[in-house]
Structure formats: C-alpha cells, structure tokens
Amino acid sequence: MYDCIVIGAGIAGAVSARKLAEEAGKKVLVLERRSHIGGNCYDEPDEHGILIHNYGPHIFHTGIEEVYQYLSRFTDWYAFGHEVVAKVGDRLIPVPFNLNTLHMVYEKEKADALEQKLIAAYGEGSRVPIMKLRENEDPDIREIAQFVYENVFLKYTMKQWGQKPEDISPEVTGRVPVLVSYDNRYFQDKYQGVPKEGFTPMFERMLDHENITVETGVDCKERLRFEENQIYFDGTPFDGEVIYTGALDELFDCQFGRLPYRSLRFDFEHYEKESYQGHSVVNYTVSEDFTRITEFKYLTGQKNTDGTTIVKEYPFAYTGAEGEIPYYAILEPKNQELYEKYHALAGGLPHFYLLGRLAEYKYYNIDAMTKKAMELADAIMAENTKR
C-alpha cells in the first residue's frame, strides 16, 4: 500500500516526503504524533485574529539558493530582516553586539578607537564568538568582551541552558557572536523572511500531493513495530523506507536513559493597544525569568489587526512529562555517547533513516534541515536505482 513511511510532519519529514512522492513516484505515508502538521514551525491565527507561532518565533534565512527556490514553490515570502534588541538596564541595544551597539555603550572617541581595533584584529564584517573575544590579549578588546559577556551573554545563557557559558559546547556559544559591522540584522543571509500566508499553509501545499497520505494524532508505535532486523507496519513486515524524525531515545523507550534536552514554556498575552514593545523580539539578558518577548505583528507583517499578541519564553529542563517538548539537544560528550547507543540500535533496522534535530540529536536551522532532507531523498532515490 505504501512504499515509504515518514514519521513526523515537520520540515524534515515534509520535504523528504514531497521529493520522494513527486520525483520517485513513491506512495508515502506521513505519520504525525501531534494534531497538526508543520512541527515547531506551526502557526495559526489566535482568537484575536493575530497570526502566532505556537512554538516560538521562526524566521527563515538562508544563503543556499537551492533551498530558497525549493521552498518558494510552496509559498511567497514576506521579506523580513530580523533585528533583535536586548534590554540592558533602561536601554534597548542591538544584538548580536555590533558596531552600532559599541557606539551606544561607549563615548565617541573611545568607540572609534575600539572599532578600529576590532577591525584590525578580526576584519570588517566578521562574526567573532564571545568566548574567543575574551581570549584576546588586548585589554581594550577584552573590555568589550567582558561587557558583552556580563550584559548580553552570561545570564541569558544560564537561563536558556541552565549552565555557565564555559560549560556549553562551542557549537552553541558560537551562535552568539560579536559582529564587526553596522548591520543590525540578526542574520546576514541573502534571503530572510517568513512565508507570506504563514508556515502552516506552506506545509499544507508541500504535503498536498496525490502520492502522500498524512495522518495526524498518531504515535508511530501504534502502527509500527521495530525489531532487530525487521520493521512491521500494522502487523505485517514492511520492506520500504522509513524516515524517522522523532526523538530517538523515545523510539526505544529510553532503555539506556533519557537524552537531555532543554524545553520551553510559552506564555501568550494579548493587549488592546497598537504595540507592546515596538520590536519583533526583545531579549531580556540581565533581568526577568523569561529569556525574550516576541511581538508577532512585527514578525509577520500583519496590519489592520485589533490589538497585539506577545509571547514570553521560559526555558526549563525537559523531563519527558506529558505536554513537554524537547527543543534543544544539550551537546556534551557524555550525551553524545548516550545517543550513540540508540544510534547503534537504529543501525540494525533495514532501510531506516534518521533525519532531523531529534533523530540526530543536533541543532539545525530551517534551511540546513531542508537541504539535509533533500539530500536524503536524493540518496534514497539513487539507492533504489541500484536495486
């Protein structure tokens, strides 16, 4: 009945399902545990008619032409150069910390001198991880690093990850650089924005194909059984491809222990006024228990709405309790070793592919995940031609 089963209807599952259905003519079944498609990119109008991102703000950004063109088949874009500010005392300063921020923090003569030192040391337009900046031998550059560390990085990072920056993977800390540029945008990619009608309509179009069947509200283990050398679908041996995008430890009932993640709680609030904060995102880097506030109308470009809706984000340690969602893998050697035990179990399953943040225990942006899903589909099609 089906040639391929894709578990999960987020970006990884949707892209791979579409390519296999469209380009290989495969009959694809997509099983999604949640009641909706789109994964964490899912968005919908709230009760006030304001388009919200239910699982926190998502902005598409990429310099990969192939990815942009592929997703553009399923949506037009609202071009949006994402700019983030941090509330430090009574000021809102641009983040990542950049040359504009530098001139807000220091008086002109000192800021000019520091700017020249940063350019000489790292080059104009460079992105320097804060932990690397702290290692510079120049005391003036270390002074900048210390300001950023204390006012932008330290407390925010501890809230987000429950750890000090020194204990966090460089892969994570490297995503919060000092930018030697006057560009206030959070990203510098060629293409930036959100789907004009929302992420959910983009996913609906992507999964709307005669060879794709989507079932939501279905845990894959209700339909699939995984044994050492065989996968069963509805009790019958299944020899087609299975692409799994869920949490790998949970697939195997956490038999070696649960993989650690950070989770998030979202508190949505609506206000009957034109604007709450005047920005799409304000990070609270030195105060409050939440990490940031997103005001959606600035993110999506919605106009003619009554009032405004915001969301506050509260990070916490994922426990696996009902309703919790694993968002960010905690990239430590001991956790990677635990992941490899589950990866070895999965390795014994025929035509079984792991794809995505949860299945691979990695961090992916939307564009990188799209690219990876496209490559996997291409690899499966190439393998099929050899059989």
UniProtKB/TrEMBL annotation:
Record-level Gene Ontology MF annotations: flavin adenine dinucleotide binding; UDP-galactopyranose mutase activity
GO CC annotation: cytosol
Cofactor(s) needed for function: FAD
Keyword flag Oxidoreductase: no
A Pfam family it matches: NAD_binding_8
EC number(s) per entry: 5.4.99.9
Keyword set, alphabetical order: FAD, Flavoprotein, Isomerase
InterPro entries assigned to the protein according to its UniProt record, in alphabetical order: UDP-GALP_mutase, UDP-GalPyranose_mutase_C
Annotated ranges, domain UDP-galactopyranose mutase C-terminal: 152-363
Family label: Belongs to the UDP-galactopyranose/dTDP-fucopyranose mutase family.
Protein name: UDP-galactopyranose mutase
Organism whose genome encodes this protein: Roseburia intestinalis L1-82
Name of the gene this protein is made from: glf
